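Lay summary. Proteins are chains of building blocks that fold into shapes, and those shapes determine what they do. In this project we predict the shape from the chain. Here is one chain we studied, written as its sequence of building blocks.
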Amino acid sequence: MRRAAFPRFNIRGVRALYLFEMGRFKRTLWQSLATPVITTVLYFVVFGTAIGDRIGDIDGVGYGAFIVPGLILLTVFTQSLSNASFGIYMPRFSGTIYEILSAPVSAVEMVLAYVGAAATKSLLLGLIILVTASFIVDLQIAYPVLMLLYLALVCFAFCLAGFIIGIWAEGFEQLQLLPMLVVTPLTFLGGVFYSIDMLPEPWRTVSLFNPLVYVVSGFRWSFHGSGDVAPWISLAALLGFCTLCIALVWWIFRTGYRIKP
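And here is the predicted shape, written in a compact code that computers can read:
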């Protein structure tokens, strides 16, 4: 009896889709890189210089260095959702997604290509902002390897969320609906510019219901060795969010939700 052959991984198909998405990034390179860098510099001018001198140190860390992890994630959250959602929405909008679905590319390979390309862009932007910040403030990274791994996981998780938004959206307006109305407010209330320990009760307890508090805290811990919550709790929350997104993507391809007529 012949053994059933396992389906081969279509590396060519994944590479073609990945390079196509990265090509779009190259065509808008100036806009994609200049905007977050200029925004980061402005944040440092306003918060790091004008306000930072009055706040002083937080947990033994200068305020300018303290806000670096939050500023990186502020851009990574936005760019991950935007790049991933727009990347999958455009084939739906133009109708070319049916050609991709009929090609010898599995759902896993398709998701890896689109999410991988978007995550690569977000990771590059995060590292560029990190380098930019190092020229402005005296920045020390306690656990550089863990910082890179954590940043890569954040990019992957939020690009998965952006992929889901791109499938769900029925128009360009809806592409910005959830990021603007949900993610951006939660980010600013998630300890990007402050420690939640600075908040009085009951607001500190209320902040613990914000999931982005755990993401920001875990990333800040990799820089300074301290955070608002324990690092293992932050990692568990991020892995849980990533698992939820993977389950939703599986359900989308299992049911054909808004990708099949």
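What the prediction tells us: The radius of gyration is 20 Å.
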